[in-house]
Design a protein that fits this description.
The complex is a heterotrimer of chains A (259), B (164) and C (324).
Chain A (H helix, E strand, L loop, with lengths): L12 H29 L8 H19 L5 H17 L20 H32 L3 E4 L9 H4 L12 E3 H11 L1 H8 L7 H10 L11 H13 L10 H10 L1
Antiparallel strand pairs in A: 1-2
Helix pairs in contact in A: 1-4, 1-6, 1-7, 2-9, 3-9
Chain B lengths: L1 H13 L6 H46 L7 H4 L3 H21 L8 H11 L17 H5 L6 H15 L1
Helix pairs in contact in B: 2-4
Chain C lengths: L1 H5 L7 H17 L8 H4 L7 H17 L2 H15 L4 H14 L3 H17 L4 H13 L3 H14 L4 H13 L3 H14 L4 H17 L5 H18 L4 H21 L13 H23 L10 H19 L1
The chains are: A mainly alpha (259), B mainly alpha (164), C mainly alpha (324).
């Protein structure tokens, strides 16, 4: 159990003041700038028109009948079911009833979809351009040296991440290069941005990406034929075997309140 | 406060429409108080014992690594049993203390929760939790979006005149 | 008491509304006129929550109701500063203030025109549509109001509030079957709302009592089931037990008279013994609730005083009947 003597490197303390702090400050300022830039660039989402809302709500109405049919009596349920199935199958709730059966339009030609894509492009550009600029700035000026030592031990796997740009094989992975500090800043400044700009700021890009991943696919995913969705919903409604929560409720209630 | 509670318990014994509800709720207050009183010291004692266990384990490893005789023998490197027991007991003690210290749980059954809202209303505003205390579906009957303000106004004028 | 400020305004009584309105100037003084979006700056001002704006809205309503127009305008101004004058909800509130300040029909007519202009520009504006419907109703044009509401529900069929309003409108016209249909739609959207179940039970009971359409026996059976469900969803629900007692009394009365007149096609009535048991349980429970409420048991003070009083009178009436 012969312990290796701890590696000691003598660094100029000026490294700390002239590299670490400038990088951090620049990162924070870029985040703030990016936030305001994206606030300027965002256009208010275009309001859906009444037909589209009607289509969506009708579908949601069918879905809620399908999940909550048990509050109704059999007759009441059957009236609603027949009515909705007829409406769904005839396409009465469609945004454009005469277009049913046609394949969904190419998203590229749809102006609404184009607008959404432009918005995404803008966001991505606002994220990419400053990042590339800063990275090249750091690479040009500060590459090739270790600037700080982490106060805790880490495994050798982190070497490639933390010592990017430093080609020393045997160095302890705790030593960190400036480019790795930059990466740490990207991931670690979330909370600073939240504190400075509010929780829904555009600078916390990673949180945004997470949200996009978790967001469930809406009832109207683009490129899907609404008429097919209505037909599927009608089929779902048709196969429901009805039971009512009101059947035999008197006995159930008596049993519960008498026990 | 005690008298109506006792009356209610008796009533439940004779009729008992809602099983054990009012007796339980009337006993909740004192029980949770004593538990809260007990939980602090329990947790603190548990933490102290746990710290002691950690310290013993640390001392043991330092001693066994510096002892030169049998540096690789298993008896020297493994911890003695009493440290294990101490750690586990301390953890259990802390758990117990924390569980006892937590307040009475909110009802998770829909009907008990709803019944509690109906029964207590927002009169128990002394509670620390600022959960909503009135029926969330009241809004559907109140229908603020469709409020008839001119009628309310004229009604209020009438009400004030009645008061005078 | 913040809980009073947060309750939907229409559930408040006149006295409570007055109490709320009197808190308004103090609330306006305590809170800043505008909020910064950055939490860094909000360190130096009281925190903003969604409740704050609910309270502003309720204060606005309460002030309008009690005739305190200047404070109402102050509340409205805060809302405009925060959300902008073009926000849908804020426009609806602005219209509401105009409605409240209108003194005669022609002014109301003008407000209605404004609503229609806004809707002509943007027909998806939900709050304004609702205001227009409510205004039509307030002006006595009930049939137009129903028509507008049906149109609104055609495009927004998942709005439980609107379905409830429709049920209320139909009920005011005595159209029980339609009212029941609208109530059931609201229940599909909020299946566990115990007050909606009780409300539907009440409507069914009214329909049975009016007795001019449909099968009263059938209505009574359904009403019984709805009240049972509302109690099942909420223990110690005064309104549910009150309705249960009413409907079982009626059923027992009818049973003794005419011995199961017609088998209802949809829901069969339970055995008479079950109805009797339910009736007894409801009587006991109502007595229980009234006693505990009167004894100022701190855990039983959430009931509405009016509802408890109604239960008390009904209990004493029915016990007199039994004694006779």
């Amino acid at each position: 159990m012969a312990q290796l003597p701890a590696q000691t490197l003598h660094r100029d303390p000026q490294l700390f003041y002239w590299i670490l702090i400038p990088i951090t400050v620049v990162m924070v300022l870029t985040g703030v700038l990016r936030h305001y830039a994206s606030v300027l660039m965002t256009t208010t989402p275009k309001k859906a028109d009444i037909k589209a809302i009607r289509e969506q709500r009708a579908l949601a109405h069918g879905a809620s009948l399908r999940t909550n049919y048990h509050v109704l009596s059999r007759k009441a349920f059957e009236t609603r079911r027949d009515f909705l199935i007829e409406g769904f199958e005839s396409g009465a709730y469609l945004k454009a009833p005469n277009q049913k059966g046609q394949p969904p339009a190419n998203p590229m030609s749809d102006p609404n979809a184009m607008e959404g894509m432009m918005g995404m492009m803008k966001n991505n550009m606002a994220m990419m351009i400053p990042n590339t600029l800063i990275m090249s700035w750091i690479n040009a000026f500060f590459s090739g040296y270790a600037i700080m030592k982490l106060p805790f031990p880490i495994t050798i796997k982190f070497k490639s991440m933390l010592q990017a740009g430093v080609m020393t094989k045997d160095m302890d992975p705790r030593w960190m290069s400036s480019i790795s500090w930059y990466f740490l800043c990207i991931f670690g400044l979330q909370f600073v941005y939240v504190f400075l700009l509010g929780s829904d700021n555009a600078a916390s890009q990673i949180a945004q990406q997470m949200q996009q991943q978790q967001m469930p696919v809406g009832p109207m995913a683009p490129g899907q034929d609404p008429h097919k969705m209505f037909k599927a919903e009608a089929e779902n409604l048709a196969v429901i075997e009805h039971y009512s929560v009101l059947d035999g409720i008197e006995e159930r209630l008596l049993e519960r309140i008498k026990v | 406060m005690l008298v109506p509670c006792r009356a209610s318990t008796k009533l439940h014994l004779t009729f008992s429409p809602a099983p054990s509800q009012s007796p339980a709720s009337s006993h909740q207050q004192p029980r949770s108080n004593t538990m809260a009183w007990l939980s602090r010291p329990l947790t603190v004692i548990g933490l102290v014992i746990l710290a002691h266990g950690c310290y013993s384990a640390h001392e043991h490893t330092v001693l066994s690594s510096t002892s030169v005789q049998h540096p690789t023998s298993p008896s020297a490197t493994s911890l003695p049993l009493d440290i294990y027991i101490e750690t586990i007991a301390a953890t259990l003690l802390i758990c117990l203390g924390l569980v006892l210290g937590s307040g009475t749980p909110e009802p998770i059954q829909w009907h008990t929760w709803a019944g509690k809202i109906e029964r207590e209303g927002d009169s128990t505003s002394g509670d620390a939790d600022k959960e909503l205390r009135s029926n969330p579906f009241n809004a559907l009957e109140a229908r603020s979006g469709f409020i008839n303000i001119s009628k309310l106004r004229s009604d209020f004028v009438k009400y004030q005149q009645l008061g005078k | 008491m913040p809980s009073l400020l947060l309750r939907p305004h229409a559930t408040l009584s006149h006295a409570e509304a007055l109490q709320v309105a009197q808190q308004a100037p103090e609330f306006l003084r305590k809170n800043p006129a505008s909020y910064s979006a950055s939490p860094f700056f909000s360190l130096f001002s009281p925190p903003e929550s969604s409740n704050t704006w609910t309270i502003y809205e309720n204060l606005l309503l309460a002030c309008l109701r009690t005739g305190d127009n200047t404070t109402a305008h102050q509340c409205l101004e805060r809302l405009v500063v925060r959300f902008g004058a073009s926000d849908e909800r804020v426009t609806a509130l602005q219209g509401l203030v105009k409605e409240a300040e209108a003194t005669n029909d022609s002014e109301l007519e003008k407000v209605l025109k404004e609503y229609e202009e806004i809707l002509a520009k943007d027909n998806t504006n939900v709050p304004i549509s609702k205001r227009r419907i409510a205004l039509l109703r307030a002006m006595g044009k009930t049939s137009e109001s129903i028509e507008a509401l049906v149109q609104f529900l055609d495009f927004s069929s998942t709005d439980a509030e609107a379905w409830m309003e429709l049920a209320d409108l139909y009920l005011s016209q005595g159209l029980y079957a339609q009212a029941i249909y609208a109530q059931e739609e609201a229940l599909i959207i909020a299946p566990n709302a115990w007050n909606l179940h009780a409300r539907l039970g009440e409507v069914l009971l009214m329909a049975a009592e009016s007795g001019n359409e449909g099968n009263p026996q059938n209505y009574l059976a359904q009403s019984l089931k709805r009240f049972c469900r509302s109690i099942e969803l909420s223990d110690d629900y005064l309104r549910g037990y009150y309705g249960l007692k009413r409907v079982t009394d009626k059923l027992l009365d009818a049973n003794s008279k005419e011995k199961k007149s017609a088998e209802s096609d949809e829901f069969t009535l339970p055995e008479t013994s079950t109805i009797e048991k339910l009736n007894q349980a409801a009587t006991k429970k109502l007595g229980d609730i009234v006693r505990k409420y009167d004894a100022k048991d701190p855990l039983w003070q959430g009931y509405d005083a009016g509802e408890v009083a109604a239960a008390r009178t009904y209990l004493s009436e029915s016990s007199q009947k039994v004694v006779r």
